[in-house]
Structures are given as structure tokens and as C-alpha cells.
Amino acid sequence: MIIAAIQRSRRVIKDGDIFAIAQKIVSKSENRYRLLSEYNPSKEAKKIAKQIEKDARFVQAVLEESHKVVRYRKNVLIVENNIGFIQANAGIDRSNIDQSEERILLLPKDPDGSANKIRLILRKHFKVNIGVIITDTMGRPFRNGIVGFAIGASNINSIRDERGKKDLFGNELKVTQIGTADELAAAASLIMGQANQKTPVVLIRGHVTNKNEINNASALIRDEQEDLFR
After folding, report:
1. Were 71 and a residue from 28, 47, 57, 78 both cysteine, which residue would form a disulfide, CB within 3.0 to 4.6 Å?
2. Residues 71-106: pLDDT tens digits?
3. pLDDT tens by residue, 128-153
4. Structural domains in the chain plus CATH codes
């Protein structure tokens, strides 16, 4: 599916190109579908479902995809999912899939692994060295609107460490780390859209990857002990 989409674009793929790929088509290709009828809600799921006014089966699905519940209120359930990201509903999706059987779509089990697998397939097919980002969307504390972010990455600088470098006035940077993969994912997400745009793959060109700092998307997850919001 991904190779076909790239070939339809008629673009020449070059060394250093990065492909941002929507999580949804990765999850679909990995058959991460489930039916709500497959879930038997626990007491905890029923309790939370009543308070947030959601289907208890859906809440059970979220709990099974989560390490722990972070916050919940009416219509909102924020969790730390099994991958480690803090997301609403553990990233479980209902949009752009057939709802006639109450189907849901889960995130890939190993997004970094999925990104690397896709990268190796694309490298073999196009005979070039490329990077891959798997994108999803999420809300942010204190800000309205969802933004794109990276849940998986391969062969790029997911986070660039600027600590120890000097600014324009010679001041040493103490804490600056740039979430490169998230910034690229956010830009790609604008092109992908969230409704019926049908653009699941975006080509990013011109970004320079530092070969000494290649890391995957899990590097973007802040340790709970350093997180003021959990």
C-alpha cells in the first residue's frame, strides 16, 4: 500500500528523504482491528464509563491498551498507553474505519519496530537510504487543538540534544532538546488532514539527519519522575 502510494506520486526518491506515514494505515496493515463485542467490561471499566459517559466496552479496550489511567472526566479518558505515550483513549481510533460492526483500531504494538520494518522494505525497493516517521495526533496540556506527533521512527534524529552549545550571545544552552520527529510529524499532519483528504504518506525532503544522534520515537517519552503533570 505504501509503496503503491509513493509510486503514484511519480516522485524520484533520494537518499536522505523521510517518509511520514499515518498511524492508521500502519495499524490497518497490521490488522489491529477489534470489535467492541469482544470486550467484557470489568468493574473498573464500568465505573469509569459511568463517570465519563462512554461505552463500558470501549473503556475496557482502553484499559487493556494502557499501563495506567492518568486522568478522566466527562467524555475524556487520558491514559499512559502500553507504548508509553500519554494519550486520550490510548490512541484507539474510530474515525475513517467502517463502523457497521462497531470496530475500533488499535495502535501498532511496536511503532518503532514497525517504522524500521517499513524503512527496510522501502530501502530495498527504492535502493536509497531513507528515514521513516509514523505519525498520530494528540491534544496538549493548556492548548486547544490536536497536533501531529511521532509514535514511531527509524533512521532519524527523533530528539536533537542542543545542551552544551552556545546561543547567539555565547550563553551555554542548559536544557534545550528539540523534538525533531514531533516537529516533522506536525508539519506532515497538516498535509495529511484528519477527515477525507486521503493523504496517508507525506515525503519530507531537505532535513539533515545527524548520523551520530539517530534515535527512535521512544526517546521522546519523558520519564515520569521528570514529568510535572503526572
Report:
1. 78
2. 999 999 999 999 999 999 999 988 878 877 899 999
3. 999 999 999 988 888 899 999 999 99
4. 1-31+108-220 (3.30.1330.100), 33-107 (3.90.1660.10)
